[in-house]
Amino acid sequence: MKISFEKIKRYRIFFPLFVQSKIYALLNHGPFCKAAATPFSQENPSFEESGSPGFKALRSGFVTQFNEAACSVASVATMLNAMFTMLNRKTDSGLITQEKILEKVRAVNWAERISRKGFGNRRGLPIEELGIVVKDTLEQFNIQYKTFAAVPLGKDLSNITELKEELFQRAVKLEGIGNCFMIAHFNQGIFIKGLHLPHISPVGAVNPEKKRVLILDVDPYVKEPYWVSFDTFFKGLSWTYNGILRKYGYTGGGYVWVCL
Q: Which secondary-structure segment (H or E) carries 23?
């Protein structure tokens, strides 16, 4: 049986991640451990009706990614559709599609980077590139914003206390009138049992009293949103993958923050 050079290279990347994921899952997702994520339907099911305007807009505009690398554009589409709802802007064809966004936003070779082949030996978007495409999307679709920030986490956490507090205070604002939005760039294997890989999804809500964050995961294999503690949330955003993915641009995660 012939094994291509590309497959060998892929195995060299994923085997350390696979081992790391299995060890982490054994220690943190095992039968004697408290689950990191709580399914949406198991905690405060009435939240579907009582949630904030922003949460309801995100739910109505929610889409799942169309391939395994398209979590960035699915997250941006969900956020953009929610913004259109909050701004009372209409489209001729209902929801704005991921394909429509990729047609209009050509920054960082976005469409190519989430294709099967990738672009320049890269696939997917690190946090810095995610910030670029979100900002360009807002401009291309004429969305005016008051505040914009793309915050990388993982490289230098010497001011970790300040970074965590800033993130929490911003997350709390999601429970307001629906003019603030957050897209998280995180290690999905920290939240749910699975391979440690970079993933992107919108944040749907936060419970300030319990310090819990709701992830609207755009992965089609994840059946429903889930809650994680704020500490777990920060851990997932700041995970460095032990340097395994550094050569591909992933030295951590972070988040994109937008207020209209």
A: helix 5-28
pTM of the predicted model as reported, rounded to 2 decimal places? 0.91
DSSP state of 119: B
Q: What is the pLDDT of residues 76-86, one digit of tens each?
A: 999 999 999 99
Q: Pairing state of beta strands 37-39 and 198-207?
A: unpaired
Could you give the 3-state DSSP secondary structure of residue 51? Answer: coil
What is the domain partition of the chain in residue ranges?
5-259
Q: DSSP letter for 246, please.
A: G
Is residue 203 within 8 A of residue 184, CB to CB? The reply is yes
DSSP state string for 54-114: HHHHHHHT----SSTTTHHHHHHHHHHHHHHHHTT---TTSSPPHHHHHHH--GGGHHHHT
Please choose, from the candidates 258, 235, 111, the residue with its C-alpha nearest in 3D space to the C-alpha of residue 183. 258
Q: How far apart are CA 66 and CA 64, in angstroms?
A: 6
Tell me: pLDDT of 119 over 60.
Answer: yes
Phi and psi dihedrals of 50, rounded to 5? -95, 0
To the nearest 10°, the Cα dihedral for 171, 172, 174, 176?
Answer: -160
CA atoms within a 13 Å half-sphere pointing along the CA-CB vector of 10: 8
5-259 placed in CATH 1.20.1290.10: no
